[in-house]
């Protein structure tokens, strides 16, 4: 054993990461910075770091660093970390005065000068053979984030039924509430490119266990590319996670994040533009048109069914014209709100009343078309049946729907060009990519 610190050792000053580490990416900077967040891990820390360092030296072909992030440990973890940094030049440590895995990761990742940032739990439950497959797509620039997953086909997992149920239940909850598509939110084995972290992490508020989930959900909403690696994972029987408080905090985090996304308070479109993750253009088709048409059609089908139901209910008491007017007005308001949020991605309350007013003008066009169809039907047919009326209204609604989509796209919810302040300079993007390539191709 390298060290066996006594509990009465005095606290020593610890190294801190340079404050200006993110200003530039140096030629001698590590390609990979692996963070190991710890809290009262005096027994597990040394074997973890020794094993991780040995693996990286034997199997990782680029410069690397191991950063110990001490979350206000009250035992001799700080002394173990200090002696490890003295023994191994690739190991650094930083101490935070407050607890929180998310706080530690955010602090270290935003101060690191490495091109790729990763973290793993101190228990090393995940087999290290998955580390290079995890970070390789990030080093190459192909992907933006990477996660280890215990729930994908090909993963091999050893853990109890209780933890298996909780893990799968939590990820199903994320799919239902936040429309998450990644398979495993809480596996302690993740990586992110430094340029992505610089733009994404300022939006992540959680400082605890929900940090991972929030980061991944925001990355998905920004259309970033998340690479998943099936892992071999063996449950740590000495896990320090307190399940009930953690579950409550996660539920609060889900509610907070859902509110923020619904209100449109997060500049995810700016991140998407800066990192070049906008949808690929299709020749002859305006950007985003296909997806908008699909969402508009789905909303249109629902609106048409609601309209026909309302019309059928109101027809007897109000007559055809007033029934048509009332049903169309109600569904038009709901249709505008749904298309504003789902089809054209407009969030927040700003301009909502203006959009509804413009939507009502579009509604007036639809009313003219549908009312005109009823007038024409009355003029050409004596006592038309209700079935004929409905057929005429469906045809008129199809015409009105095409006009509605065109007006919503080019007038009501037209896309405005981003200002110069929100655009990421092309030369800066090129420089960042060039820096990643230099790091990836420079051996240790």
Q: Tell me the fraction of residues in β-strands, as a range.
A: 5-15%
Number of domains: 2
Global Rg: 28 Å
Low-confidence stretches: 1-25, 417-444
Structural class: alpha/beta
Give me the number of helical elements: 14
Reported by name, the CATH topology of the largest domain is: Spore Coat Polysaccharide Biosynthesis Protein SpsA, Chain A
Mean pLDDT: 82
Question: Could you name the CATH homologous superfamily of the largest domain?
Answer: Spore Coat Polysaccharide Biosynthesis Protein SpsA, Chain A
- Specify the CATH architecture of the largest domain: Alpha-Beta Complex
Which geometry do the CA atoms define? elongated
Major beta-sheet overview: 7 strands, mixed
By CATH reckoning, the class of the largest domain would read Alpha Beta
Order of helical and strand elements: EHEHEHEHEEHEHHEEHHHHHHH
Q: Quick recap of the structure?
A:
This protein is an alpha/beta fold and 444 residues long.
């Amino acid at each position: 054993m390298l060290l066996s610190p006594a509990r009465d050792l005095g606290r020593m000053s610890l190294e801190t990461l340079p404050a200006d580490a993110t200003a530039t990416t140096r030629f001698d900077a590590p390609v990979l910075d692996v963070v190991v967040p710890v809290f009262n891990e005096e027994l597990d820390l040394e074997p973890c770091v020794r094993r991780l360092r040995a693996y990286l030296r034997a199997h990782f072909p680029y410069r690397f660093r191991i950063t110990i992030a001490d979350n206000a440990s009250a035992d001799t973890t700080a002394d173990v970390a200090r002696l490890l940094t003295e023994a191994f030049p690739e190991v650094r440590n930083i101490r935070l005065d407050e607890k929180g895995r998310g706080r530690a990761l955010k602090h270290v990742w935003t101060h690191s000068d490495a091109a790729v940032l990763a973290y793993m739990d101190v228990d090393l439950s995940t087999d290290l053979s998955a580390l290079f497959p995890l970070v390789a797509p990030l080093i190459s620039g192909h992907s933006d984030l990477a996660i280890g997953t215990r729930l994908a086909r090909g993963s091999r997992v050893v853990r109890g039924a209780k933890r298996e149920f909780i893990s799968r239940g939590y990820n199903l909850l994320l799919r239902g509430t936040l429309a998450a598509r990644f398979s495993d939110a809480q596996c302690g084995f993740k990586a992110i490119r430094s340029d992505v972290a610089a733009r994404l992490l300022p939006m992540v508020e959680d400082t605890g266990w929900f940090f991972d989930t929030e980061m991944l959900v925001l990355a998905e909403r920004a259309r970033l590319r998340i690479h998943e690696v099936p892992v071999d994972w063996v449950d740590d029987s000495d896990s320090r996670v307190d399940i009930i408080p953690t579950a409550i905090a996660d539920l609060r985090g889900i509610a907070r994040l859902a509110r923020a996304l619904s209100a449109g308070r997060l500049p995810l479109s700016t991140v998407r533009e800066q990192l070049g993750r906008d949808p690929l253009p299709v020749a002859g088709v305006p950007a985003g048109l296909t997806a908008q048409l699909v969402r508009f059609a789905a909303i249109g089908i629902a609106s048409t069914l609601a309209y026909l139901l309302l019309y059928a209910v109101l027809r007897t008491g109000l007559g055809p014209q007033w029934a048509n007017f009332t049903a169309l007005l109600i569904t038009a308001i709901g249709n505008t709100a749904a298309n504003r949020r789902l089809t054209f991605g407009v969030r927040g309350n700003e301009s909502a009343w203006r959009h509804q007013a413009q939507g009502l003008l579009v509604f007036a066009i639809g009313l003219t078309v549908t009312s005109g169809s009823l007038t024409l039907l009355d003029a050409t047919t004596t006592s038309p049946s209700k079935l004929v009326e409905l057929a005429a209204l469906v045809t008129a609604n199809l015409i009105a729907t095409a006009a509605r989509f065109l007006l919503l796209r080019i007038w009501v919810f037209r896309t405005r060009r981003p200002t110069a302040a929100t655009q990421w300079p092309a030369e800066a993007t090129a420089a960042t990519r060039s820096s990643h390539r230099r790091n990836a191709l420079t051996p240790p």
